[in-house]
Amino acid sequence: MTPSAEYPGGTGRPRILVLRALGLGDLLTAVPALRALRRGRPAHELVLAAPARLAAAAAATGLVDRLLPAAAPGRAVPAALAWAGPAPDLAVDLHGSGPESRRPLARLCPRRLYAYAQPDAPEWRDDEHERDRWCRLLERYGLPADPADLAVPAPAVASPAPGAVVLHPGADAAARCWPAERFAAVARALSRAGHRVVVTAGAAEGRLASSVAGRAELAQDAVIGGTGGDVPFDVLMALVAGARCVVAGDTGIAHLATALGTPSVTLFGPVAPRLWGPPPRPYHRVLWHPDADDAPRPGDAHGDRPDERLLRITVEEVLDAVRALPPTGTAAGARPAQAAVPSAG
Prior knowledge:
By secondary structure, the protein is α/β, with parallel strands linked by helices. The chain folds into two domains: 15-140, Glycogen Phosphorylase B (Rossmann fold), CATH 3.40.50.2000; 165-324, 3-Layer(aba) Sandwich (Rossmann fold). The protein is built from twelve helices and eleven strands. The protein has helices at 24-29, 31-40, 55-60, 99-106, 130-140, 180-192, 206-215, 233-241, 252-260, 273-276, 308-311, 315-324, and strands spanning 15-19, 45-50, 66-69, 90-93, 112-114, 165-168, 197-201, 223-225, 245-249, 264-267, 284-287. The strands form two sheets. A six-stranded parallel beta sheet has the order 8-7-6-9-10-11, with helices on both faces. A five-stranded parallel beta sheet has the order 3-2-1-4-5. Helix 6 (180-192) links the parallel strand 6 (165-168) and strand 7. Helix 2 runs parallel beside helix 5 and helix 6 (180-192) crosses helix 7 (206-215). The longest helix has 13 residues, at 180-192. It comes from Streptomyces peucetius. Keywords: Glycosyltransferase, Transferase. This is Glycosyltransferase family 9 protein. Residues 287-309, 326-345 are annotated as: Disordered.
């Protein structure tokens, strides 16, 4: 698959249409399910219905043949899918739990439909990791799926900042944004200890990233992205693959670090890491401070202010977590020895 978001039509092969019209992190948590489909139906063309801006990311998984542009505001379901040609041999709903996400697939009259909330489907579980949920769905329909099979291949291009600590202060909702001044304090401490620190920014996050870099007194080239759209995905992927570690909230770049085997520190607030966090590996650290009786989703993941559980995470905790990461030997390959991580003071 090329990075093009255009779907030129059929190829004569039977086709699988997968609906996952969400964000980067959602795509990456679906990798085990996509891999199960690829292995279980190798003769099929696998078409992913997802936002056009994810075309390069979908291609980078090595699992998707084509991307069918599909999107809706927020996390809503697209009202219709611009499908061309014969009906899909198989349609798979990896988007939601009910009839809203199943309906646009059913309208295409696929020969088979795999989805929750239909008579032959397993029961939906709210308290289940996103990777497990979709693998369990496919298992129900006879396709072996391993939630731990989540790796994507490292890119061939070179990192623009090899060995750097990558900080990503943004998220698609304020509820998952740790305060900028705390990111700046982490960046300043790491930089003073001799680490190269870069701050990444999505299309609308340039001001936030520049604020973090400015408060931390980083070099002018420390901000990557934030102007003219998202960071090109091959550049972002190379940056993460070659990083010392990634520090971010529960957002797409954290899931990219998981998929590439890059050490990471992920900050959780409104949603428990057992639902969206990385697998339990020594090079992934998660920070979360729920109340004693907190449910798996104690807050609003799409709220307009930082979640109170996220605000309980301190600068020193983040620095301690970075300090605890192994310096070499991750799934992404051996990494050079790094400077010691200082205290926040």
